[in-house]
Write a structure and sequence with these properties.
The protein is mostly helical. The protein has two domains: 111 residues, Alpha-Beta Complex (50s Ribosomal Protein L17, Chain: A); 33 residues. The longest helix has 32 residues.
Length: 169
């Protein structure tokens, strides 16, 4: 039985899980948004948020602690320079998970995990600005085709009358 197990093992060994979360965390910090499965996004959230909290205090000690988790100098630098300055006043909740739907190959539930202060999502703005466009070009095509049919019918009638005239002669 799996009672009181603290976190999702994600079907991996502990070393594989640690390496995967470190790579995903550095990708999230560098690109500010990544696409993954919902289970990995939830595991990544609990992995990254304490690191972002540590990055608010820019000291050698906190840099070394964060580097021990991320193992990537570039992402540590970006975390302390860009991300920490943006989230300095936020008391937590630095990431957002947006569900996307299911992946086509294996039907896995996909999500986008992103840093909150780098992307603004206002649902009200999106719904008011988007309008469904009507397709008006179809009516013109129908009338053209109808006119072409009438012309073809008239031409066929005149051709038939010519043929009937020739046979009569």
């Amino acid at each position: 039985m799996r009672h009181k197990k603290g976190f999702n093992h994600l079907g991996r060994t502990s070393s594989h899980r640690k390496a995967m979360l470190a790579n995903m965390a550095s990708s999230l910090i560098m690109h500010k948004r990544i696409e993954t499965t919902v289970a990995k996004a939830k595991a990544l959230r609990s992995y990254v948020e304490p690191l972002i909290t540590k990055s608010k205090v820019d000291s050698t000690h906190s840099r070394r602690i964060v580097f021990s988790y991320l193992q990537n100098k570039e992402s540590v630098t970006i975390l302390f320079r860009e991300v920490a300055t943006k989230v300095g006043s936020r008391p937590g909740g630095y990431t957002r998970i947006l569900r996307k739907g299911n992946r086509q190959g294996d039907n896995a539930e996909m999500a986008i995990i992103e840093l909150v202060d780098f992307f603004d999502h206002d649902v009200a703005k999106e719904t008011t600005t988007k309008r469904k466009s009507t397709r008006r070009g179809r009516g013109a095509k129908k009338t053209e085709t109808v006119e072409a049919k009438h012309e073809a019918i008239e031409n066929n009638d005149s051709v038939e009358t010519d043929e009937t005239a020739e046979t009569a002669e």
